[in-house]
Design goal:
Length: about 180
């Protein structure tokens, strides 16, 4: 009986995360706590995290909720986490951090992979640019993420990289901006 109870708890947790992730039953644009979105995304990608990759969450819970297209932001976290996992392979540390930078909210995804070489760095946000083998990468993850963050949320997405430490930082305005073009 206890195992059934545990399974039901796990399943309803997964269903809740899937709803939070897909946002299908929610208004597309509303005020959200980014931590709820990050946690839902992490539940969805958990199966892809290798046993020897450690997940570290450093959340600043004092951050205000932000106006956002929640499902689209979930796509951004998914793309950044997917890249981070891809860069690290079987072993490493994935850190998901939130904080404040001036009057912007920052979400950072850091991996301990090899970093982005200087000749590759200027091209990563180009559509269809990928260094992955044919069939493995579409080269669209960062292009789509850039559009969602910069064009739809009037935010910014930046990268800092060196061997052993790559951070993608998404900056989001805390207050409502002009409607997207
Ligand atoms: N965390 C990362 N570490 C190293 N390289 C990265 C990372 N994130 C992105 N890149 C580089 O940027 C390229 C483009 O990423 P993306 O647009 O997501 O396309 P894809 O993942 O399909 O290749 C990747 O092929 C890779 O070379
Ligand atoms: Mg990608």
């Amino acid at each position: 009986m206890r195992e059934i109870g545990d399974a039901v708890t796990r399943i309803s947790g997964l269903v809740g995360a899937a709803r939070q992730y897909s946002q299908l039953d929610r208004a597309p644009h509303r005020v959200v706590d980014v931590h709820d979105l990050l946690d839902a995304t992490l539940v969805m990608v958990k199966g892809k995290i290798p046993a020897q990759v450690k997940l570290v969450r450093e959340y600043d819970r004092s951050l205000p909720p932000v106006p956002a297209y929640a499902a689209e932001l979930n796509q951004v976290w998914t793309n950044l986490i997917d890249n981070a996992l891809g860069a690290m392979g079987e072993k490493g540390v994935l850190t998901v951090r939130t904080g404040r930078v001036g009057d912007l909210l920052a979400v950072e995804i850091t991996d301990t992979g090899p970093g982005i070489p200087p000749d590759v760095r200027p091209r990563i946000f180009e559509p269809f640019f990928t260094t992955k083998p044919v069939g493995a990468g579409t080269g669209l993850g960062l292009d789509i993420s850039y559009r969602i963050v910069v064009h739809k949320h009037h935010g910014d997405i930046r990268v800092e990289t060196e061997p052993g430490r790559t951070t993608f930082r998404v900056l989001l305005p805390v207050t409502e901006g002009p409607p997207p073009a």
